[in-house]
Amino acid sequence: MSGNNTILITGAGGFLGSLLARALHTDPQTPDIRLVLVDIVEPKAPAGSRAVTIKADLTDPPQVDALFQTEYGIPDTVYCLHGIMSRGSEDNFDFGVKVNVDSVRTVLDAARKYGEQAGQPMKFIFTSSLAVYGGPLPDIIKPDTLATPQSAYGMGKLVDEIFINEYTRRGFVDGRILRLPTIAVRAGAPTAAASSFISGIIREPLQGLPSTCPIGTSADSPELDLALWVASPETTVANFLHARRIPADKFFPHTRVVCLPGFTTTVREEVAALEAVAGPEAVALISFEDDETNKRVVSSWPARFDNAYALALGFQVDEGGMVPIVRRFQAQLRAEEM
Ligand SMILES: NC(=O)c1ccc[n+]([C@@H]2O[C@H](COP(=O)([O-])OP(=O)(O)OC[C@H]3O[C@@H](n4cnc5c(N)ncnc54)[C@H](O)[C@@H]3O)[C@@H](O)[C@H]2O)c1
């Protein structure tokens, strides 16, 4: 792979950004990697890595420009991960657009400018979301399914995608757009994302903590059959690394959008996986409190995709459903306790 092996990650203080930094640092295929880690909260560099950490507000163009001029020189790749999550951008539309659209455009323009200076289109790897889909949808989403978002978050992601595709078509950047499933189980605290409960109903009970599920009124509610399209963090981050390695000519000629592989589960299956791993006492920690807004947003997301194109590009998929993911998360929690 050509380039100077300097990688800029925006949103590097976040959940996936910090996992990505660690994965790049330990990836045997990139032993000489140098990381530029940026977030509005001071990001942490993985222990022993070659990294600069920068606290910056990406809505401010001069701060964005400076990221491309560190001691490591012009990066060959940007992983653009920063953003305001779904519920956050739904509840605060203008702020959501400022971060999820305007600042992404600013980073994209800087990638274009510095890629031109370096003499090679910069790889621009962008995390989009299944939230670009909404309205009437086919049973299975395919690469040619029209994206008609029904949320501010999904709208913002789609606008970004259109820019990245056009910048790629013009040779301004070498874009790779990854539409992510919902990632579960997410470590850390609950978030403003409408999907937060999808991890919360596993994560909190595994730590003996109460958790609220905004879908259904009890563990027997029919609403728990709500289907969800999910992937584990480990598989997703492995797919982020893979996205950088794919030769440009392997993508469809007309779009750089790829729906990363995921699998279909339901809230009920999640609860069953929790019970299988941690027993009924863990399930008893979930309180079911129907929340119409949250339910409306999550129900508008599709839950079944055709993985064929992504798998043909070499991306990975989780095997075995939720139980191995819950077990892995429990093992991580236990390791952290030691
Ligand atoms: N986690 C999921 O289930 C999921 C699903 C689909 C898509 N995605 C996308 O993946 C990306 C990463 O998701 P995540 O779960 O790690 O989110 P996260 O909220 O943990 O991380 C996002 C980071 O962006 C930073 N940020 C926000 N505004 C900023 C600003 N103005 N300047 C600098 N940094 C700013 C935040 O501080 C945060 O650390 C996002 O683009 C998200 O939309 C995530």
UniProtKB/TrEMBL annotation:
UniProt domain NAD-dependent epimerase/dehydratase: residue ranges: 7-209
Assigned keywords, A-Z: Carbohydrate metabolism, NADP
Coiled-coil annotated spans: none
The protein, known as: NAD(P)-binding protein
Organism (species): Polyporus arcularius HHB13444
Higher taxonomy: Eukaryota, Fungi, Dikarya, Basidiomycota, Agaricomycotina
